[in-house]
Each structure stands twice: as structure tokens, then as C-alpha cells.
Design a protein that fits this description.
The structure holds two protein chains of two kinds. By secondary structure, chain A is of the alpha/beta class. In chain A, about 35% of the residues lie in helices and about 20% in strands. Chain A has 14 helices and 15 strands. Chain A has helices at about 5-30, 50-65, 80-90, 110-115, 130-140, 155-170, 185-195, 225-230, 235-240, 240-245, 250-260, 345-360, 370-385, 395-400; strands at about 45-50, 70-75, 105, 120-125, 145, 175, 200-210, 265-270, 285-290, 295-305, 310-320, 320-325, 330, 335-340, 390. Chain A has a nine-stranded mixed sheet. In chain A, helix 11 crosses helix 13 (about 370-385). The longest helix of chain A has 23 residues, at about 5-30. The termini of chain A are close together. Chain B is α/β, with parallel strands linked by helices. Chain B folds into two domains: about 30-170 and about 360-380, Rossmann fold, CATH 3.40.50.720; about 185-355 and about 385-425, Dihydrodipicolinate Reductase, domain 2. Chain B contains 16 helices and 15 strands. A nine-stranded mixed sheet of chain B has the order 14-13-12-11-7-10-9-8-15. Chain B is globular and about 65 Å long. Classes of the chains: A alpha/beta, B alpha/beta.
């Protein structure tokens, strides 16, 4: 594992800026950018990260409310940006009006996009970049929708939490792509769990066990950095590993049930089936025990293995009953106590609708800290598996110096870090 | 027949037909034992058995390596004096020497070979009318577990006793705690955890003159067909406790695992050198077991339990069990806590074991001898076969990446790593090697 010093420069200068910005904001009582008195103005949206999820997020945002327009795009790669632009143009001029001057490519494209007059920035790049993108956007006074996960290491998580605090001070909204938090069946179930319908929580499980995902093969013209970024799922510094990249959804639901992150993680994992070079340095399975502050120990399992059994779900058990967290509650004998019977709006659209409503209503919502904590819960699980060590939340949040994203990244050579092995990988 | 006569040829006292193996009688109260498998655990078991009853006398020994059996007998002689009476013609070696041992005039046989052989050894002993103490685990696959169950049923018919080396079952502190759990002190069971996460293990080199198969049996922990992987060989202790709490095996398995940290390349190369085999075979000598397996066990009442087994250097170790109910939770071995906190913010203690704790290592022998004397021999075969099979299920789920049910595992799985014809044909020569399992590719059979 790398223990780089990205944060030393970038983070310090960021903190200095944020302090100035909040002070200035509070002193002058500036109008909150993008707060719309009449709710009739068009919200201008820029997208950073023009892959499949980014393009999907842009469409979801457009479906979420009228008066929303995509006006700027940024991606590290011009071809991805162009592909997204063509796709979004199909939505019509009133929804996607992206002039060539608002199309940015390259590693600094995000800065240029944030420098435009967009009101909302959608972020869907690999999560390694999220902390720096979020900091830049909040500094510039933009509202943010960011895909999960939002970092890949503890340094990144701290940074996101600081940006979220600044967003609060600036009355900006941040919504994260943990869409279950915006799904009525989950929301209604959680209300009942928090109201005590299943008693005190004593056990829980969550899973994301599935087959493999896409692989982006290496081309001769790619530099190391370009190949790793195009094939980003498989490099821990970019994706955080699949426990972070994918399973964070389920871990977030269990955190939701327990009203906060776990105290400890004790994990194992490895590469049992997916061993080729194209799969970088991530694991293919993790089995984690999380301890929550009330003493409950939970199981988290995730796997990406073709031909293996699949399971993607959550379950919470209490002293009086059990729930799937997603619409059903049973007593301990298996009798159904309650079932969600409401609507099933598209949660991917709903999360944008909630953001837009918050902006237009002048009632900011800010999920930054919460999603940073859920991301860091997953990161803690990964770090425990990589090192074989049992980890405490307090250590991970306060003391870990793990900082995986190279500073001053440029397209060029970048060696792939070896696969971590317990007993060899250093706990940083 | 001869078994029921003592050394002087005097016929044994009348005993109930259902319990032919009663061993007490006036003037001849020696309990004649034999040992199958003369490694560290086997010699330990003899000591435990000797400690359990002063009448225990060792009469015969068997090990794959006859020399090892002989040395063990000499060692016992020094250690136990007259209580070791092993004549030269009751020292056996080779892959099939156990058949000769079970024919000897013995009351009880202790078994501590690698678990792959246990089902066959057990059946041979029971067929020969001997009671058995056997080390855990007792099989490495479903076919083996079924053979143990069958042998156990035959033992019941013949009035023979069987206990096994899951010593926690006979430890006073565990017994008292589990009794509280069964009596409802923690309410209905809703979850649990068990772990055997430790460091690395031994890797045994080859000796001059050994064949590949002999060396493999000597270095058995590294081969799934011999040991059943770590989850079976070691973690079974903890899994057995959870089964005990739930009063039976789980209904479902979802396991995952892999091999990251077992690096034996240099030792394996040396083995190839000593054996004089092709250097390419050294890869096989590194073994095929995983280094970690994490499984969710779902019990019939719906409770889901985490099992973790690992060998990894410089990692956080943990060997324990925990059971969670609606009213509290327990460490299974001496304390029960409420979910409610006391004034200091810690979980309230509901019950604590106050007696003297034991390891259970003597008692697992003593109870066998005692119940044989009483004519109502204890028979743990089915229970230990089920716990072994639970651990085997964890491994099979991890190896294949597949979820499956207990019913399928017990009744339909055809996995048989050492089928009878292979067992019958074993002889010094080439080893038996399998590929390291790959989830999603390794077939679930």
C-alpha cells in the first residue's frame, strides 16, 4: 500500500481556502448560489465522469424535475466525453445543451467544468478522485450529486467530511448515489426498525455476491495511468476494491439501521478465482465482521465470481423480529408483522428529485458526512482483510494515514501495487 | 470371542447381550486399549485415556510408519511402565496395518490419524467389536461422514461406545453454560459467531526412502483429501459448539475463501529433491488447502451465524465462540450477559459459571469407559459426523462459491475424496494430488 503525501499539500491548501471561504460567507451573508426564489429558473447541470453511470446519472437528473439542463461535461478521456455528449444530445436541446466550449477532457477537466456557471455538479468518476472533485466544487459554491463511494481511503474520507461541513456552512446541498436512502420501501422499513418494531438490534447481515464485471483491456497506446483509469474497477487506488465500490450500498443500509458506523472490523478476503493481470490488485471476495457500538456483530460478504451463487441483500435481526430492510418485517417465529405497500418510484431518479427540491426550496440536504462514513466502513473492512488485522473505527478515522491516490497525477508510467497479503501488507 | 476373555483365558462375566463390551469383572479389570495413529495427538490421547481410568492398559499400536509405532510404544513403556504392555507382534505399520490391530484382544481403540482414514478405521473397529475414542474431525467429505454415521449405528446395535475429541463437549464450564442456553437464559437464539483464526502451521519435509504418498500422509495438513482443510481440521471445535447451542446442524451454507499466504515453494522444492521426483512436481507439494474460509451458517430457526477460519502470519488471531439470543448473549464457556447495560455502560452479567472449569480431555475418555462399565455406552458418532460435515460444508461452499442446503449435503452430495476402492489400493508410491479449488469453476458434487 502506498502512503503518499497527497494530502500534505493539497489538503492543507484546501483547508486554508475553506476557512477563508466560510468566514467570508458568514461575514457577508452572500446569497446562496443556486437558491431559487421562484423555482422557475433553469438549473444548469455539469457532469464530471462521462462513463455509463455518469451518463445514467445525467439522464436520471433530467427525468427528476422540469427546468433542469445539462450544460457541461468533463472526463479524463475525450472519447468518453464525446460518447456521453452524443447520448445526452438525444434528450433534446431543452434538456441537453452542451456547447463545445463547455466540453472538457483531461485530468484537469473537472476544474474547468467547476469553473463554469453550472449550479449542480454531478460526479461519477472513479471514487479515488471524488474527494478532490468535491472539495473543488464546494469551494466554488456548487451543489453536488456524487455517486457512491466517495473515497478509497481514510484520508479521502476525512477530506469529504470537511467538504461536507463547508457545504453546510455555505448552505449547499450534497446528495450521494446510495439510492436506497431515497427508496420509500427502505425509508418506511427503517422508520419502523428505528421505532423498535423488531426490538433492539442484535445481529445483521448484508451481501453483494455476484459474478464478474466488465474489463477494459490494455491497448498499446495507453500509458499505465490511462489503462488503469479506463480499467479502474480493478485498482484499489481508483475503486477502493469492490467491497467499497459496490458493497458500500449494503453496508450503508446496515449503518442506517444502527444509526451510524461500526466500531470495529475483522475481515478476511483474497483472490481465489480472478487472478489475471487485467484484474489489477483488488480481491474477488471479502467476508467481514463489523461490530456496532451496541455490541451487535454483523456479517458482510461480497464477491465477484463468475459461476458462483449470487445474493444481494440486507437483513437485520432484533430481540423481537427480523427485517429485510426493504419492505418486510417478521416476528421471530417467521410471521409477517408488516409489509410495505406503497409506491416504488425509481430511486435513481428520486435521489436527484430530492436534491433539486432541496435547492429550489432553499432547504439544503447534505449527505456528505454520512456517505463518507459508510464508504469508510467499507474501506475499514478492506483494510482489515488486506492486512489481516482487526481495526477500530476510532483508529481508522483519526490515525490511519492511508492515502492511495498519487499526487499530481499525470498520464504516464505507474506501477501496479502488488496484491496485498495479510502479514505482509503494512497497516498504514 | 477371545476379546471377552481376560489374559488368563477366564471367560468374562455374564453381560447383557446389548453391551458385549463391558470391561469390568472381578480380578480382570484391565481396560485394554490400542492406538491407531501415533503422532502427537495420538500419544496425547493415550495419556488422557490413562489419566481417565487407572485400569487402562495399552496393548497394541498402529501407525502408517511402523517405526513410528514402535518408538511410540517404547515411549509409552518409559512413561507408563506396566500399563504399557505392547508385544512386538501387536505393533503394526503400512496403509492396512490397522486391520490387524483391530483384530487384537482389545476393548477400546483410540484413533488419531489424519481424518481421511477415520471412517474406514472406525468401521473396521466397530465391525471387530471394539469401542472407539476418535479424534476430531472424523471425515473430510459427505461420503466419509455418512460412513461414520453408519458405523455409529452399527456400534449402537452392537452395544459399543464411541466418543470423540471435541473436548469442549466434556468440559464442565462449557456444559454448564450450554445448559443455561438450552434452558432459555438468553431467550431464542438469533445469531452467533465462531472463529479459529491463527498463524501458520508446520510443513513437514520428506525423509530418505519415503515415497511420495508416504510423505504426503506425513505432511497431511496441506492436502484437502487428507485433512479436510483448516475449517474441518481445526475450526470444527468452534463450529461444533454452535451446533451444540442450536442442538443440531445448520440448514444452509454461504461460504467464501481463498489461498493468499501459504508460500511453501522452497520447502516443496526440497521435498522433490529428497524424494528424487521431477522438480515440476514441487508445485504439487505446496499443498492445496485454502488459508481462510468465512461462512455464513443459517440454522433451521432462521438465525445466521458467522464462522471464520484462517491461517495467516502476523494477523489478528481469535479462537472463540459467541451465541446471541433475544434476552442476552454468551461466550458459550462461562458467562451470559444481558443486552441491557449496567451503570458502567457494560452489558449486565446474567449468569457466571462458578465451578471448576476443565479441558474435557480426560473426561472424553472417562465417560466412554464409565458408560461402558455401566452397560450403556455413550455414542457420539452421529453428532461428531454432523459437526464434521458442517465444517466440510463450509469448505465446499467456499471452494465452489455455491450456496447449498444441509439436506443436499447430507443426502445428495457425492463428494468422496477417498473412495473405498482407493483406500483398499493404497500403497507406497505416487501421491494423490488435486488442483487448488477455484470458486465458480470447481464443481459442486
Amino acid at each position: 500500500m502506498r502512503s503518499a503525501s497527497r494530502s500534505k499539500l493539497t489538503r492543507r491548501s484546501f483547508l486554508k481556502t475553506t476557512a477563508t471561504a466560510s468566514a467570508g460567507l458568514l461575514a457577508t451573508g452572500l446569497r446562496v448560489p443556486g437558491a431559487f426564489a421562484a423555482g422557475s429558473d433553469t438549473l444548469k447541470v455539469g457532469l464530471i465522469g462521462c462513463g455509463g453511470r455518469g451518463t445514467g446519472a445525467a439522464k436520471d437528473c433530467l427525468s427528476a424535475a422540469p427546468g433542469v439542463k445539462i450544460v457541461a461535461l468533463a472526463d479524463a478521456f475525450a472519447d468518453r466525453m464525446e460518447g456521453c455528449r452524443n447520448e445526452l444530445n438525444k434528450q433534446g436541446k431543452d434538456k441537453a445543451d452542451i456547447p463545445a466550449g463547455n466540453c472538457f477532457a483531461g485530468l484537469d477537466a473537472y476544474k474547468k467544468l467547476i469553473g463554469t456557471d453550472v449550479d449542480i455538479v454531478l460526479m461519477a468518476t472513479p471514487p479515488g478522485f471524488r474527494p478532490i472533485h468535491l472539495a473543488e466544487a464546494v469551494k466554488a459554491g456548487k451543489h453536488v450529486f456524487m455517486e457512491k463511494p466517495v473515497c478509497v481511503d481514510p484520508v479521502g474520507a476525512r477530506w469529504v467530511i470537511e467538504s461536507a461541513a463547508l457545504a453546510d456552512a455555505k448552505k449547499l446541498s450534497i446528495v450521494a448515489g446510495t439510492q436506497r436512502r431515497h427508496e420509500p420501501k427502505y425509508i418506511e422499513t427503517m422508520k419502523r426498525i428505528h421505532d423498535g418494531m423488531i426490538g433492539s438490534l442484535v445481529s445483521a447481515q448484508c451481501y453483494w455476491n455476484q459474478g464478474g464485471l466488465w474489463v477494459h483491456g490494455r491497448k498499446a497506446e495507453y500509458s499505465d495511468v490511462e489503462w488503469q483509469m479506463r480499467n479502474w474497477l480493478y485498482f484499489t487506488w481508483l475503486s477502493g476494491d469492490h467491497i467499497v465500490e459496490q458493497h458500500v450500498h449494503n453496508i450503508d443500509v446496515v449503518n442506517w439501521a444502527f444509526d451510524g458506523p461500526p466500531d470495529r472490523a475483522y475481515a478476511m478476503g483474497g483472490r481465489a478465482a480472478r487472478k489475471g493481470e487485467q484484474y489489477g490488485n483488488i480481491y474477488d471476495h471479502f467476508c467481514v465482521e463489523f461490530w456496532y457500538p451496541n455490541g451487535a456483530r454483523t456479517i458482510s460478504q461480497c464477491r465477484q465470481t463468475d459461476g458462483a451463487s449470487s445474493r444481494v441483500s440486507e437483513r437485520v435481526a432484533g430481540t423481537k423480529g427480523v427485517s429485510d430492510c426493504a419492505g418486510k418485517i417478521w416476528d421471530l417465529k417467521g410471521n409477517l408483522l408488516w409489509e410495505y405497500k406503497g409506491d416504488y418510484p425509481n430511486p435513481y431518479v428520486r435521489e436527484h428529485a430530492d436534491l433539486i427540491a432541496a435547492i429550489r426550496g432553499g432547504k439544503p440536504i447534505n449527505e456528505g458526512k454520512r456517505v463518507a462514513e459508510s464508504t469508510l466502513s467499507a474501506v475499514m473492512g478492506r483494510m482489515s482483510a488486506y492486512t489481516g488485522r482487526e481495526l477500530q473505527w476510532s483508529w481508522v478515522t483519526k490515525s490511519s494515514k492511508l492515502d492511495l491516490v498519487p499526487q499530481d497525477l499525470k498520464f504516464g508510467p505507474l506501477a501496479v501495487e502488488p496484491v496485498c497479503k495479510p502479514g505482509e501488507a503494512k497497516l498504514v | 470371542m477371545s476379546r471377552r476373555k481376560d489374559k488368563s483365558g477366564k471367560k468374562a462375566k455374564n453381560t447383557p447381550a446389548a453391551s458385549p463390551n463391558l470391561v469390568t469383572e472381578g480380578g480382570s479389570d484391565r481396560i485394554k486399549i490400542g492406538l491407531i495413529g501415533c503422532g502427537g495427538r495420538g500419544t496425547g490421547a493415550v495419556g488422557d485415556s490413562m489419566g481417565a481410568d487407572p485400569a487402562v492398559t495399552l496393548k497394541g499400536v498402529y501407525d502408517l510408519f511402523a517405526e513410528k509405532a514402535r518408538k511410540a510404544a517404547d515411549g509409552f513403556k518409559k512413561r507408563f511402565g506396566d500399563r504399557c504392555q505392547v508385544p512386538d507382534d501387536q505393533v503394526f505399520g503400512g496403509f492396512h496395518g490397522y486391520k490387524d490391530l483391530v483384530k487384537c484382544d482389545l476393548d477400546l481403540i483410540l484413533m488419531a490419524t489424519p481424518p481421511a482414514f477415520r471412517p474406514y478405521h472406525l468401521m473396521a473397529a466397530i465391525q471387530a467389536g471394539k469401542s472407539v475414542f476418535m479424534e476430531k474431525p472424523v471425515a473430510v467429505d459427505p461420503a466419509g461422514a455418512r460412513r461414520v454415521i453408519e458405523a455409529g449405528e452399527l456400534a449402537t446395535k452392537k452395544g459399543l461406545g464411541i466418543t470423540c475429541g471435541t473436548q469442549r463437549r466434556h468440559a464442565t464450564n462449557y456444559m454448564a453454560t450450554i445448559e443455561q442456553i438450552h434452558n432459555g437464559t438468553i431467550g431464542d437464539l438469533v445469531g452467533g459467531q465462531c472463529y479459529w483464526n491463527g498463524g501458520g502451521i508446520w510443513y513437514r519435509g520428506a525423509s530418505e526412502g519415503q515415497t511420495e504418498l508416504e510423505w504426503q500422509c506425513h505432511n497431511w495438513y496441506h492436502f484437502n483429501w487428507l485433512c479436510g482443510d483448516q475449517v474441518c481440521e481445526q475450526h470444527i471445535h468452534n463450529i461444533d459448539i454452535i451446533n451444540w447451542c442450536f442442538q443440531g446442524p445448520p440448514a444452509k451454507f454461504v461460504g467464501m475463501g481463498g489461498r493468499l499466504t501459504r508460500d511453501y515453494a522452497s520447502q516443496a522444492a526440497k521435498v522433490a529433491e529428497v524424494l528424487g521426483t521431477d522438480a515440476k512436481r514441487a508445485k504439487l507439494y505446496e499443498g492445496d488447502i485454502y488459508c481462510h474460509i468465512g461462512t455464513e451458517l443459517e440454522y433451521p430457526n432462521g438465525a445466521r451465524v458467522l464462522s471464520m477460519g484462517r491461517h495467516a502470519p502476523k494477523s489478528s488471531g481469535r479462537v472463540s465462540e459467541r451465541i446471541v439470543g433475544t434476552k442476552g448473549h454468551s461466550d458459550c464457556h462461562n458467562t451470559i450477559w444481558s443486552h441491557e447495560k449496567d451503570d458502567s455502560g457494560k452489558d449486565k452479567v446474567l449468569w457466571k459459571f462458578e465451578g471448576k472449569g476443565t479441558s474435557g480431555r480426560n473426561e472424553e475418555h472417562a465417560i466412554l469407559i464409565r458408560t461402558l462399565k455401566e452397560g450403556k455406552p455413550v455414542n457420539e458418532a452421529r453428532r461428531i459426523a454432523e459437526s464434521t460435515l458442517t465444517a466440510v460444508g463450509c469448505r465446499m461452499s467456499a471452494y465452489t462459491g455455491r450456496e447449498f442446503s444441509w439436506d443436499w449435503l447430507l443426502n445428495s452430495s457425492k463428494l468422496d475424496l477417498l473412495p473405498p476402492e482407493t483406500m483398499e489400493a493404497l500403497k507406497p508410491g505416487p501421491g494423490i494430488f488435486h488442483e487448488i479449488a477455484v470458486p465458480g469453476k470447481t464443481k459442486l458434487i
